[in-house]
Amino acid sequence: METTASDIITAPVGEFCRLAGLGRTKVYEMLGDGTLASITIGKRRLIVLDSYRKLIERQGSVAPANQPAAAPPRRRDPARFPTS
């Protein structure tokens, strides 16, 4: 039986970091603030991948963070640029 990405429901922290391209510190920060969900079996912590998928869906409905916001219009200094 072949396993696909949609079949996997949890991943260990290290593997999740590699797959998501995130550092361990950021992942634990996201676990701490509730952005990501996890379960613990014995001493092993597993990230619930559905919580990451939902995060991606939420981020997709918001403007991309890596796009800079439009700069506000520059105001002319009347002392430097007289109108008459």
Structural descriptors:
alpha+beta, three-stranded antiparallel β-sheet, 3 helices, elongated
Based on Cα principal axes, name the global outline: elongated
Rg measurement, Å: 22 Å
| SS elements, strand count | 3
Helix-residue proportion: 25-40%
Widest beta sheet: strand line-up: 1-3-2
Average pLDDT reading: 84
* N-to-C series of helices and strands: EHHEEH
Strand-residue proportion: 5-15%
Give the count of helical stretches.
3
Alpha-carbon distance between the two ends: 80 Å
How would a crystallographer describe the biggest sheet?
Answer: 3 strands, antiparallel
Structural class: alpha+beta
Name the poorly predicted regions. none
Task: Summarize this entry quickly.
By secondary structure, this protein is α+β, with helices and mostly antiparallel strands.
Question: Describe it for me?
Answer:
The chain has a domain at 10-60. Helix content is 35%, strand content 14%. The protein has helices at residues 13-20, 24-32, 49-60; strands at residues 10-12, 38-41, 44-48. The protein has a three-stranded antiparallel sheet with strand order 1-3-2. The longest helix has 12 residues, at 49-60. The radius of gyration is 22 Å and the shape is elongated. The mean pLDDT is 84.
